[in-house]
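Supplementary Methods S3. Input chains for the assembly prediction are listed below.
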Amino acid sequence: MPVAVFSQRKARVVAWLDERLALDRIREFLAHKTVPVHSGTIWYYFGGITLFLFGIQVATGILLLLYYRPTATEAYESVQFIVTRVEFGWLIRSLHSWSANLMILTAFVHMFSVAFLRGWRRPREVTWLSGIVLLGLTLAFGFSGYLLPWNTTAYFATKVGTDLAGSIPLIGPPLARFLRGGDDVTGGTLTRFFGFHVAVLPAVTTAVLAVHLALVQRFGISSPPWLKTSEGKVPQMRFVPNFLLRELMAWYAALAALGVLAALFPWPLGEKADPFAPAPAGIRPEWYFLAPFYTLKLLPSHVAFLEGEQAGLIGFGLLGLWWAALPFWGVRPDGRERTRLVTGTGVLLLAWLSSFTLLGYLK
Amino acid sequence: MSLGLLLLTFGLAAAPGRDNCQECHAALDGRLAAPAQAYARDVHRRAGFTCASCHGGDAQETDPGLAMSKQRGFLGAIARTAIPKLCARCHSDAALMHKYRPQQRVDQLAQYLTSVHGQRLMKGDTAVATCSDCHGAHGISEVKDPQSPVHPLRLPQTCAGCHADAQHMRPYGLPTDQFEQYRQSVHWEALARRRDPSAPSCAACHGNHGATPPEVNSMAAVCGTCHALVEDLYRQSPHRAAFEAGGRGGCTVCHGHHRVLRASPEMLAGEKAICAQCHESGSKGAAVANEMAGLLAKLRDALARAQGILNRAARDGMEVSEATLRLQDGQEALVKARVAVHTVRLENVASLVHEGLSIADQSYRAGEQALRERDRRRLGLLVSLVTVSVAIAGLWMKLRAIESGGKQT
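Predicted structure tokens for the full assembly:
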């Protein structure tokens, strides 16, 4: 086909789509969308990488669904079947598990970078809150997905996790029963967690993610306040194509890292869970729950009039609320920021999470 | 004496709350205080028994002269020959023991009287073991208490207290190396290293209260208590008749008494062969033993080779749990083949070895396949990484081209 004819047809198709989808408006929007350029620009890529890993999760999760069976008698065997018999099943399962872990890591990096670069300031309070909700949903994905292979470590880690949930004052016991579908972790819990993992959480996450991305588009990407020049302008790069091409490079790099992890360190299957067997020694949750888990282990049996665990859980709850409310206490009523308080809180939180995760891993 | 026994019986039934004997003796020095101090942690004290329950006297009385008077039934130190019957007053009383330990046996005295210890004691030999020598006298713990000298994990040392003492054993003409030999055995390995309280120690073969050396003809039955299948096969073998005719003790002819070593093909053939002690080189028996040893060694090596490759695959992250599980069937075949040696029939051993070799071969091939799959994955990874690198390089060049064209704002 001659080039001129092809160009004509392409123009016609684009015009047809423009008329119906208002693509020109999107093109116009993207043409003017920019990203601040400064020494901290690299942190802007982590939100996109988290989104990319979420996409990998969705794609590999759908493929796993083709063979996975969510019952206590079949779950382990079905995962075993996936990794030993299904063509590239081992790769899909390994990618799913590794990308889940990397996604949680990049979500944390994204959250702290936004906190330290002051991306939560007016008018981005709701963007921050939606991000915190997304982080919570990501952790819920991790907790619910961990049980699904129905292996020994998953079973007992879920037992410990739901026991902890049951220690929360007032709502604890009904919450634990709701999560487990009974008084103990059983096949009913597995079915329930499967439902959360593949239906409830994806639906809620998609909705919150849509709000989060819409708000990011609505308000643009924030520049750190200390970079404002005398003219009030920070150097910018165009989103399309400059930032987008860099983001694509970051996605490729994440894909390469995932490939290396999945091929050289395939996610282990472990041994099938036996509810009647004693809990293996040194049972502990996944790394992203280690910091609170290890902190709870260090607490005395009683703190004031509360049991140690209850006091710890209340403390974590208050800390989470305090951190979520950062946009509201990070700025004084007169508009000036509480710089030291925000940075100090962020540094302390980061130090606690990283050091206690490491301690919990080593102990 | 009859008054004393009457008071003693009354003292038992009354289970007095205050024990002045212990309070006074604990405040004394030396040998008079030691029993009272030890009794403070005694299982009988926790059950409400006092010093007077065994020694007689009146534990309620504050005047020592009256408390330890004959009128109050005081017996003083118990003669060694009287100890078994004194303990049996309660421990052979089913109704009384039911109150404290409903499941505990009450035939210890009857058993003891059948033992070499009991029979000699009844003849007046006070150097033999009686209840207090094994269980202790005043600081008695329950058998399940790890501190008890008769706890399964401590029993060999307790027996060795007398039986490894050359001076003590000299009058009886008994050897004193049993404990040393036992400490080299597979049974000791299970008991002491794996801390398995169910592993056999002295009492498992000799009995505890009715301790006696197993007789030649009952040796297989003693070992068969745990090794039931082996006992059955041995009883069907030609060895049984031969050993019994020769007055030799079954299992111990090949495996020894106390120094029971881990069984291996080397017991059948080679320099250390046990079979060679009876079967001369070149005889039919020696030939069968040699062939059995060869088959067992072949299977053992094949299983180890298969386990090695599966371990390597598992270390590299390959999923080989099914093959590993299958290999356990091979290990089971090896155990069965070793057991079948006791039938002394080559065809029995050979069929099990061939079954095991087939499993070992399948497992090895599964391991090889897993390693090939690992290599394929690594090659795939390399190709993917090159592709990703090319894509990143392409994007970078495109970006450079755009930005060098001045399109960045």
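The domain at 38-285 of chain A is CATH 1.20.810.10 (Cytochrome Bc1 Complex; Chain C). The first helix of chain A runs from residue 3 to 21.
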